[in-house]
Automatic annotation (TrEMBL):
It holds the Pfam family DUF7884. It comes from the Bacteria. It comes from Flagellimonas oceani. GO terms for molecular function: methyltransferase activity. The lineage of its organism: Bacteria, Pseudomonadati, Bacteroidota, Flavobacteriia, Flavobacteriales. Residues 6-92 form the DUF7884 domain. Belongs to the CFA/CMAS family. The active site is at C358. This is Class I SAM-dependent methyltransferase.
Length: 400
């Protein structure tokens, strides 16, 4: 390995001062001022791998232990993102509604299983008791992760303006907590759909434990089948699922939502968004979310408008997701003794990098988290302002 090449590549990688340690103990101080972290090189990717995709090459080197990062991992990644010429800031722009290969149903099933079917016991270790695997909503600095996830769930349900006896479709229902909470609090009938067998199993157990079989059902179902089920819903909600649809299938996703939503219906879409239409980070696509794509906000609004939806409300929760991921990363590390009995070191390092890098991205990269409230009709008896969410009777959470 060429030490000069490695040093040249790494000297401008961060906007912070750090220590570089080679495999033979040779040490270099990169930058001036207080040292924030240390990079230890045991083995370094070759030129071919680095030029092809530095994100994947360096991510894999960290996974295997060829590269060690000593310090706060989130802050290290943030320092790389802040470099204007960093490889983490370089992404290929895509046409807003350009042609891409659609993701088939079988591929979607395989991709979802890759991430979500690795074990409910694993997720239970570091998610909160609601098993909510999406951005939480922190009203105060002292909110626990559980408090913030409950805030998020009730925030969403209030935006939907639910009424007893109505129907709600939850696309990508996860482990079922939002569906159950909607039924308990508002006495609405809920259908949740998921492609994860592990999520389905847990959600059905929860529904039975709550005695809500009459009000809540969860099915193993793809969103592409919604047009054919012959049902109409008063409301549709989708939390953290649109990122799995794929760019080419976004129009089909919105078409299926439109097909099952009543003319007086409301649709709340909660998902990660991009500022621009860009390709997915190659490391994340390969190891974490195969088949995923982060839509831009304008893509979603364009598609919704094309179907005649009215945009009622848009809310950014970007920094809430950073804080959520920081909680997850902390809980992940706090349960390491149990996680080490489930997975090997490579998996653990991969997951550690994923959680911390995503927290960093919501702090400094060009991604966001938006809740978009869409109305199928122009006048669906909605209050004039968002303040109703906080003032409605029974809102125990109070004002922000």
């Amino acid at each position: 390995m060429d030490k000069v090449l490695i040093k040249t590549f790494l000297k401008n990688i961060s906007d912070q001062t750090f220590t570089l340690v080679f495999w033979d103990g040779e040490t270099h101080e990169i930058g001036e001022g207080e040292f924030k972290f240390k990079i230890i090189i045991h083995n370094f990717p070759g030129k071919k791998e680095l030029f092809a995709d530095p994100s994947t090459a360096l991510g894999e080197a960290y996974m295997t232990g060829d590269i060690e990062l000593v310090g706060n991992l989130q802050e290290i990644v943030e320092s790389i993102m802040r470099r204007n010429k960093s490889f983490l800031n370089e992404s290929k722009l895509l046409g807003m509604l350009g042609k891409c290969s659609p993701v088939g149903k079988r591929t979607s099933e395989r991709d979802i299983a890759h991430h979500y079917d690795i074990g409910n016991d694993f997720y239970a270790l570091w998610l909160d008791p609601t098993m909510s695997y999406s951005c939480a909503y922190f009203k105060t600095g002292s909110d626990s992760l559980y408090d913030a996830q409950m805030n998020k769930i009730h925030h969403i349900l209030k935006k939907l303006n639910l009424r007893e006896g109505q129907t709600l479709l939850d696309i990508g229902c996860g482990w079922g907590f939002l569906a159950i909470e909607a039924a308990k609090k508002y006495r609405v009938r809920v259908l949740g759909i998921t492609l994860s067998k592990e999520q389905l199993k847990k959600a059905q157990e929860r529904i039975k434990d709550e005695g809500l079989q009459v009000l809540v059902a969860v099915k193993l179902m793809d969103y592409r089948g919604l047009e054919k089920i012959g049902l109409k819903f008063d409301h549709v909600v989708s939390v953290g699922m649109a990122e799995h649809v794929g760019k080419a299938n976004l129009p089909l996703y919105f078409k299926n939502v439109n097909a099952v939503l009543k003319e007086t219906g409301l649709f709340l879409l909660h998902n990660i968004t991009n500022v621009l239409e860009t390709e997915v980070n190659a490391f994340i696509a390969k190891y974490i979310f195969p088949g995923g794509y982060i839509p831009s906000l304008r893509e979603e609004l364009y598609l919704a408008a094309d179907l005649g939806f009215h945009t009622i409300d848009i809310e950014s929760l970007r920094l809430h997701y950073m804080k959520t991921l920081m909680h997850w990363a902390e809980r992940f590390e706090g349960n390491m003794d149990k996680i080490e009995t489930m997975f090997d070191t490579k998996f653990i390092r991969m997951w550690r990098l994923y959680l911390n890098a995503c927290a960093a991205a919501f702090h400094y990269a060009k991604i966001d988290l938006h809740q978009i409230l869409l109305s199928k009709g122009a006048n669906n008896q909605l209050p004039l302002t968002r303040q109703y969410i906080y003032d409605m009777p029974g809102n125990k959470f109070g004002n922000r």
